[in-house]
Amino acid sequence: KLYLKALARTRISRVPGETLTMNAYLVGYNAALCAGWAYTFVQMLTTIYSGTASSLALDSPTLLTLVWESCEAPLKISQSVAIMEVIHAMLGVVRSPVMITATQVASRLWILWGIVNLAPEATTTSVVTVGFINLSLVTLLTAWCLSEVIRYGFFALKEVGSQPGVMVWLRYSGFLVLYPLGVSSELAMVWLAIPVIRLKGLWSIALPNPINLSVSYDVICVLAVAAYLPGFPQLFGYMLKQRRKVLGAGGKAGRGGKKD
Hints:
Blueprint: H1 16-53, H2 61-80, H3 83-91, H4 98-116, H5 120-123, E1 128-130, E2 133-135, H6 137-159, H7 165-173, H8 175-200, H9 217-247
Antiparallel strand pairs: 1-2
Helix pairs in contact: 1-2, 1-6, 3-4, 6-7, 6-8, 7-9, 8-9
């Protein structure tokens, strides 16, 4: 999910004036989002540095809360603006499948607004330990920020006709770590939020009511998680194929990188 967005993004043929204007817009859009995600990441690192310098543990509720407070605004802005990618696909600004793009953007917005922001008392104060890894808001932000800085930076440079080998390599190699980390962190956020959602009845409709229909949002969350699991190996396998296609069997970007 983190890397399939706009993998096949290619400009549609336009008249010279229109192409120049659209290129300028896409450069500005991608550069702005790259900067937004980079700022969010720096805010997180700065908060962690200050907190650990004050003897706060990395996974302590106090430090996680401070991270959320410092990153909440830029995170919400940077992620919500991604709705424009659906509009770009609909208008033909980029050649991305509308439904796939909409699904990918909606899933991120759901995690942000329908999980993390909905139950911050759980999602921004707790961790889920899986083996030797503590999944938390910090791991979620790390995966999201780095993947988006790479993705938007790659496309901003591509729009000006530049594809440095290092950016091509990062674009098609970063997902090997960031995608599993991102998905597992998203699932951890849902796991932490469900008890709070169930206890408070958040976004749920209880009986009796005029329409005689009950909706349990916590059940919807469980069903959404079930949809994540079969999709992961398929998407990861697709990205591996794209990596081999662009970087070759040796995993090295050619000079200037291949165009995707």
